Amino acid sequence: MQSSVLHSQPKSTVGTPAYIAPEVLSRKEYDGKIADVWSCGVTLYVMLVGAYPFEDPEDPRNFRKTIQRILSVEYSIPDYVRISKECKHLLFRIFVAEPEKRITIPEIEKHPWFVKYMPVEFTEGKERGLENEDKREESQVIEQVLAIVQEGRKHGEEPKLSEHFIGGSMDLDDTDADANLDDTESSGDFVCAL
């Protein structure tokens, strides 16, 4: 028996605009798992670059522009950030507008950049089925994770953070010229009724 929660086709558009996959904006049913791949790609990009991939660096609070850039898959890696070929390839495969052509989780698990520093216990455990997954020790410590991210950067310069990088509020009231200026509470979530 399938769970109606775990196996339903998502129809809502809720979340921070910077992470939303193009198909989620289409107002049609979409595969939540493949949309999550896109969102994970945004997270990886942010870890490597220090900025959201689809924000306009000249106008980061303009969420209409962000949405347009998501729909047209308009992003680039700044020249001052060095990212390995394998990592760039993974991002290229993640940021694909057509969900059926986007890389899947099983494909990511086999991608050269993903497996490069994969702990042996993970790959061996996966083959055995991980019967005692909750009993196994943590196989990666934070230092290892940071080293993996640094390798993805390929020893490039640290990102130069400015006002158009992460840290600013994502208040969607800015997208509406008629927004109520007295409205000071906002979750930062983008909600679109279907």
Automatic annotation (TrEMBL):
Keyword check for Transferase: yes
SMART domains for the chain: S_TKc
Reaction catalyzed: L-seryl-[protein] + ATP = O-phospho-L-seryl-[protein] + ADP + H(+); L-threonyl-[protein] + ATP = O-phospho-L-threonyl-[protein] + ADP + H(+)
UniProt record, GO biological process: response to osmotic stress
Pfam families linked: Pkinase
Alphabetically ordered keywords of this record: ATP-binding, Kinase, Nucleotide-binding, Serine/threonine-protein kinase, Transferase
Top-level class of the enzyme under EC nomenclature: transferase
Keyword hit for Aminoacyl-tRNA synthetase: no
Domain of life the protein comes from: Eukaryota
EC number: 2.7.11.1
Residues covered by the Protein kinase domain: 1-114
Gene Ontology MF, one: ATP binding
Name the record gives this protein: non-specific serine/threonine protein kinase
Lineage: Eukaryota, Viridiplantae, Streptophyta, Embryophyta, Tracheophyta
